């Protein structure tokens, strides 16, 4: 009997050969690992970055080394005009998109709420929530079969932060990722019947530059031993989950928040 459930699925690379993927914040950390692994799985990749052009070029070189096409697009993913320009540049240079990974995110500096500036709150919400919403909207406008698109997948980067609250560190960040979870669930149900799958990955303590940017460079190493598995995770371990959710192997996943957290 034919394996109807597995028909058409490339189980080797979870691949969607020839598809075009946008990765926001693809220059470093989890986003860069997603770009590299997506290329191996058959995606051409638009690598977005904010300020680190060198890191973005390095990621793009890795995509090309895997035999796929890559472009590098600078843009602040908190700014609507930059988000629109990223989508337009990708379509112009690589063709119609099949997937978007909304990965660009910041924690803000570690601080208690009583000392938090309004500007810090706006920055975290502006990128992690509003920018992600705009990018998701632009993806749906292009992917939805209701609007003439061919369908596709969106993966948002959430966090365990909404579950633990991140007290004394970055409560505004935890709140922003809680918004990402609610948005992912709602949007996923809105467009599930239009060929668009929206899911999220919620990493735990991952060893990237994000901790140094928050003001505590050794945070992942110092707190890694408190994670049930006994260590911080790697960007590659998170990227595995993202690339799987992008793939047709995850075709029945809608509104999933996939935890990748070592048991934390
Ligand atoms: P990271 O190492 O600090 O890298 C951040 C990436 O986002 C860089 O490529 C950076 O670009 C880009 N970026 C920052 N601000 C941007 C902006 N305004 N516009 C466009 N791109 C921007 O971060 P990460 O640890 O890989 O985190 C990636 C995602 O995973 C975030 O959403 C984060 O909240 C989430 N996450 C991380 C952890 C963790 O422990 N690391 C845990 C849970 C969730 P440049 O290189 O140009 O600066």
Indicate the topology.
Elements: E1 20-23, H1 29-40, E2 44-49, H2 53-65, E3 70-74, H3 80-94, E4 99-102, H4 118-143, E5 152-157, H5 161-164, H6 171-191, E6 196-203, H7 210-214, H8 219-224, H9 235-246, E7 257-260
Parallel strand pairs: 1-2, 1-4, 2-3, 4-5, 5-6, 6-7
Residues 24-25, 27-31, 48-52, 55, 76-78, 103-106, 127, 157, 159, 203, 205-206, 208-210, 213, 235 line the site of NADP nicotinamide-adenine-dinucleotide phosphate.
Structure commentary:
The N and C termini lie far apart (42 Å). It is built from 9 helices and 7 strands. It is globular and about 50 Å long. A 7-stranded parallel sheet has the order 3-2-1-4-5-6-7, with helices on both faces. The protein has one domain (17-260): Rossmann fold, CATH 3.40.50. Mean pLDDT is 94; it is low at 1-17. With 264 residues, the protein is α/β, with parallel strands linked by helices.
